[in-house]
Amino acid sequence: MGFNIAIDGPAGAGKSTIAKKVAKEKGYIYVDTGAMYRAMALYLIRNKIDPNDENAISAGCRSADITLQYERGEQIVLLNGENVSGLIRTEEVGNMASVSSANKDVRTKLVELQQKLAADADVVMDGRDIGTCVLPDADVKVYLTASARERAGRRYKQLKAKGQDCDLDTIEKDIIERDHRDMTREISPLKQAEDAVLIDSSDLTIGQVVRAILDLCK
What we know:
Distance between the termini: 18 Å
Strand content: 15-25%
Number of domains: 1
Radius of gyration: 16 Å
Number of helices: 9
């Protein structure tokens, strides 16, 4: 059984950035569960599946093969053999992932893979329900958050840096709506595990957050 670090929190809290750095410091494998759900969402979008059709999502997800590989230390997300790492970070995919991740068949398929990875190796895993559902016995659990405005500002800067036209208020509205969906969904809702340490990164640097988590691993 590997040493498991679970990092949960809402969209835009910096989970992926922090988890990658913690994994690098510890020499652990980083498992980006959000990327796996986004790959599934991309598959559903490509197949023109209605996000409001639960049965269609359940049927469609069975044909998606999603795996993680590492090349030169970087995580590669494969969807039916295709590297989709550069295609899964759009707002459209993110919104579909938020909806489809509530589907029990989607979650069952991906959680099995995530648990196998954690059983076989030392991992840092981030997502919405890692500490509560996927790895309830994780050695370290963190709930990482930040204000909706702060998270929107981070996303705004990312999109602007990529040359994409965007509006800060619209991004904040989308984040608040996504938070509500994630926190109120019937299956594995986003919430802080009872034994998780709360870290609000609104006024912290990336380095400060990483150090706080590393200190918990001692």
